[in-house]
Amino acid sequence: MNDEHAERDERPTTDPATEAFVAHRNLLFTVAYEMLGSAADAEDVLQETWLRWVEVDLDQVRDHRAYLVRITTRQALNRLRTLSRRREAYVGPWLPEPVLTAPDVAEDVELAESVSMALMLVLETLSPTERAVFVLREVFDVDYDEIAAAVDKTPAAVRQIAHRARRHVDARRPRAAVSASVSRAAVDSFRRALETGDLQGLLDVLAPDVVLLGDGGGVKQASRRPIIGADKVARYLVGGTRKVTETITIEPTLANGHPSFLLRLDGEVDGVVAFRIEDAHITGLYYVRNPEKLTRVGSETSLTLR
Question: d(Cα 20, Cα 69) in Å, to the nearest integer?
Fold first, then answer.
């Protein structure tokens, strides 16, 4: 009996700071990712958050979750301001880093919309503070007082920023969310047409004003300007696939909560293709080829709003 007690006493115990951080880690990652559009930078922010969190006197913290979100927001905001300057010198269009997600993310309509490539691109048009306020208020439903503490503004100022950011995003986000079945049907039609080189099939599923953005980061070949219009996009895609000498494999997957493709050349990952879909037609095509943004496509990333 004494040996059993001794055995139990020797079992490692987790300290409260670690327990709280681990319990909310997926939430903190999602906050940082939505603010930064980069999973790699979000991971760095979590490291910075942890280093600050272990220095906190937990006896003085009433709400661990809220305090952790506040630290994460401050670190992400600092990094976002640096990244904004860096992205001005980026070669070609800059696209968010795609993350593969489990089916449960797609089933959570609110979460799937908030991490969609389409909305993440709209968030890129906000100032760093506007983006932080929008993400915390509209996505995570954080109260104005808590946001004010995170971004060093008054609650009144935060309300004004939130209103301005919401109006800006609403004017640019997809007009209406489409169902998962409609998205899958559009993406499947696109894949079949692309695999067979069916130009008319592509034209049938592409919206007249579709926009294609490619992100090679100056490392991989990609169009440095947006390609606009169904005919131009369809011909660019068909012409591009015909020039490829390697074996192309189009692997359906879920990226950022939505039907997407993992594109392979001779079995090696070449990029991720994400879509913006409205009224059963593809209005946006986002092809991420930059190798630095494909480091997480080997496994699913856990995201949550709670």
Answer: 12
Q: Give me the DSSP letters along 15-51.
A: -HHHHHHHHHHHHHHHHHHHHHS-HHHHHHHHHHHHH
CB 17 within 8 A of CB 56: yes
pLDDT given for residue 174 in this prediction: 79
What confidence score (pLDDT) does residue 2 get? Answer: 54
- Quick check: 92 and 217 in contact, CB under 8 A? yes
For the stretch 201-239, what's the b/e string if a residue is b when 16 or more beta carbons lie within 10 angstroms of its beta carbon?
A: bbbebbbeebbbbbbbbeebebbeeebebbeebbebbbe
Number of Cβ within 10 Å of residue 182's Cβ equals 15
Averaged pLDDT of the chain: 92
Six-digit token string for 255:
């990226």
What's residue 3's pLDDT?
55
Evaluate if residue 4 carries a pLDDT over 90: no
Q: What φ, ψ does residue 302 adopt, rounded to 5°?
A: -85, 125
Which residue's structure tokens are 């998205």? Answer: 183
- Cβ contact 46:76 at 8 Å: no
What Rg do the C-alpha atoms of the chain give, in angstroms?
A: 22
User: CA-to-CA distance for 139 and 29, rounded, in angstroms?
Assistant: 14
Which of 6-15, 46-55, 178-187 bottoms out in mean pLDDT, i.e. has the lowest?
A: 6-15
Among the listed residues 80, 27, 24, 18, the one whose alpha carbon sits nearest the alpha carbon of residue 51: 18
Average pLDDT for 41-56: 97
